[in-house]
Fold each of these.
Amino acid sequence: MKFQGTSNYVATADLMLSVNAAITLQRPLLVKGEPGTGKTMLAEEVASALKVPLLQWHIKSTTKAQQGLYEYDAVSRLRDSQLSDIDGGERVKNIHNYIIKGVLWQAFTAEQPVALLIDEIDKADIEFPNDLLREIDRMEFYCYETRELIRANHRPLVFITSNNEKELPDAFLRRCFFHYIKFPDAATMQQIVDVHFPGLKADLLSAAMKTFFDVRNLPGLKKKPSTSELLDWLKLLMAQDIPASVLQTQGDKVAVPPLVGALLKNEQDVTLFEKLVFMQQRNR
Ligand SMILES: Nc1ncnc2c1ncn2[C@@H]1O[C@H](COP(=O)(O)OP(=O)(O)O)[C@@H](O)[C@H]1O
Ligand SMILES: [Mg+2]
């Protein structure tokens, strides 16, 4: 099993190296990076390239580690026990009917090797990664209700993503292989755009790229636009048939680009940008 990128995903050499290192070590790959730099998509693309199913677990602030293992649905069992005349109470007697399997259980007991994505782990509370240490390390856990040990038939290929909102515990980090997706440089970004919009006119592309990187390099931005925002913006520019000349600026001067709402997502950033444009125009 080796990952070499796919036709819809641009993977840099160091990213491919990290993915293959995690596969070799059989350790989870912890992927960090700005939102929109392709962390979630990486797991999807690696799974499809290696032809293994991908089980996804999207973490929220309220997600508990136990939900990834299993949950015991005591309420349904109680209700069924009160309606036991339906099937002679057979269903209620078997506790297995009330165990809801989480993604880890499904991944461990799958017949073929699978990939498992634990997406945006930094959204959960600080205990969450610690609570999964043993399960991820040993690839097994115990179900107390049914008194069975659930052990992985095959070690799943685990991807864990983080937007870096919280630090992760050291004990957790020790068990992962780490990769930081750097923000793509201009050449890589060009490749990514080519993958999404192969027919984009060259002059529009180069003008848009220049504007995009100008906006990104603006000092003091609260939220820098990322890959997915550039792609959205390009899609709009194409849909509205905006010519490259509208984006082109003289020398180093910047102008507020059309449809800037696709790139800048809060009013402070837009104001900052407008101020800068205004000052530059005055200095002419
Ligand atoms: N390396 C890449 N190759 C192709 N498309 C990319 C790449 N990186 C980002 N994208 C685009 O950006 C979008 C956002 O990526 P996503 O995986 O959701 O980011 P993240 O999970 O890091 O927030 C994707 O749907 C894809 O269209
Ligand atoms: Mg994501």
Amino acid sequence: MDITQHGLDRADLVVLVGHDGLVEWSANRSRVEVADMLHDIADSIEDGDPVMTTATASGLVAAGYQPCPAQDAPAPQGTPVWSARLEWSLASGTMIRARYGVGGGELGQPATLTVRKAASEYICGGCRHVIARGAPHGSNAGAHYCGCCITTVRPADQFKKAA
Ligand SMILES: [Zn+2]
Ligand SMILES: [Zn+2]
């Protein structure tokens, strides 16, 4: 087996597996990135994806965002989790008056999320880490939080009176 320079010039990663099972690989990327790519490929094969995934370490990382160092979520897939950081919004009405004794203000609540595999790359809504495609993280329809920023215990609401 032999990986030619020409083959490598046209690809970021070349893997050859011989009939005898010997593996030879060569890459224009770091070992960590290569391992990520291979994990991604293995996941997509297991999931039955018809299309091969592309590399996880992407343009977002190249653009200066930090890849998330969390290898795992604090809970298995499908578990409800919350963002550790509160999302603030203006709130008013009878519920606010009943709970806080004033007509309105800013209500901070954690995002309600579910642990899912990232279908694509996302920027974490809490810390701006890059969530790699396939990485377990917390998401809902509009938000994505990396493994560093989710918790299995719902943080308490906070309230600030309108100034
Ligand atoms: Zn993170
Ligand atoms: Zn984060």
